[in-house]
Amino acid sequence: MPGTRALRPTRREALQSLGAVGAAFAARCGSGPDYPRPNILFVMTDDQQAQQMSCAGHPILRTPNMDRLANEGVRFENAFCTNSLCAPGRGSVLTGCYSHVHGIRGNSEKRDEIEALDPNLPTFPRLLREAGYRTGLFGKWHIRQDPNDFDEWKVLPGQGVYFDPDFIRNGVRRQERGYATDLTTDFALDFLRRRGDEPFCLVYQHKAPHRPFTPAPRHANLYDDIAWPKPETYGDDYATRPLAREAEDMKFDISLAGDYEDLPKGLGPAAKKDWIFDRFVKDHHRAVYGVDENLGQILEYLDVTGLAEDTLIIYTTDNGYFLGEHGWYDKRFMYEPSLRIPFLIRYPRLPLNGHVEERMVLNVDIAPTILDLAGIDVPERMQGESLAPLLRGSPPDDWRQSIFYAYYDNSWAMKDLPPEARTDPSFRYFTAHRVSPHRGVRTGRYKLIEYYNEDGYWELFDLHQDPNELNNLYSEPGHDDLIAELTRELRRLQGQYQERG
For the residues 51-65, what does the mean pLDDT come to? Predict the structure, then answer.
């Protein structure tokens, strides 16, 4: 395996940090009578699938540092995003609110009224900063406004690029030499070295493994000797899901062909599909491997400086991802590969180690959890729930039994159409990926999805009998009572979250 980029703190730094940790015990807070205020390390990747960790059972990819967080903390087996897109997911993490509340419904970066995060909503970095934390943000931001809740920040403009990228540091843009994942880690380590005596909140966010799925050169040949296994739904024919058939631009053999100049000429359709799949899925996993390698540097720094014991670490991604499932790449649909997210929490002052939590959690739970463990009152406007009771091993009896999801990405475009088009029932507008807006409810066993612009088209899946979501049961006889029950729950959740499409 490729070597790691070792970067240890000096002995002097370690001694200084140990002294600072001792002094921090004077600042007691709501984590409990024996806890200092925790430092916060929030780690986010871009477009990582929930199963892309060896601790989650991946058969090939090795992620020893993600595994370490799971082994020394909690891995959430049933963690979900609330709108499977980059910018909306980031807004939900910051504010603890759904997209329709925080203001970012899609990735339409040229439209201020769509991409703008509501400045009146509290964010967890803002509240931590007001409580005396030193806050820093490094890596991918992907929100239209400049970061306002950080003492210092250095972010990629928009999506950014992997090699020799521009970074914007506190408003000043300049090019940096290197690979984006490595650079983001270097900036984060520099922040840690200069943190001072106050507790810190470090938001450490990678571009990887986002398209164009580009690994570091040192990992370019990783997995070359492996025939990558294809997902069971690789050849999905969408027989019971006609709307899924229309998502042509999510088919990787159509959309990704132009990404590869070395795609062999003259391949037949099946061979071309297999060649592109093998390349993109390996590069995607190589990029995740690079993230794990860099995460190891941060964990090592925390260990050597004595900061690990009092640092809460949360590791996740902005949304799930299709890696050949249903013949797709990308996300958006409320299907499991797109809906599920990796989610790890380690805080050594809490009792659970190596625990796998089965209860359903959401990305809107992250902000209230951080604030709760930092002893800061959670604003009523946050829609998520603190996970602190689950992390302490004392989950409440009334923990959620269902989750709500809402995807909007093309619904805003209807506002730009002439009135006659907006009222024509035969007219249908799609963004490039042709995924119609939808909302849905998922329980432990069932999923009901309402495509509310599609003249009564719904999907119903039994996840126990059909975990790959191939058989839409909505129009099959014998499910009327189940559909009525799930529809009531969907409407209840809409009311709870004040969602109106």
Answer: 98
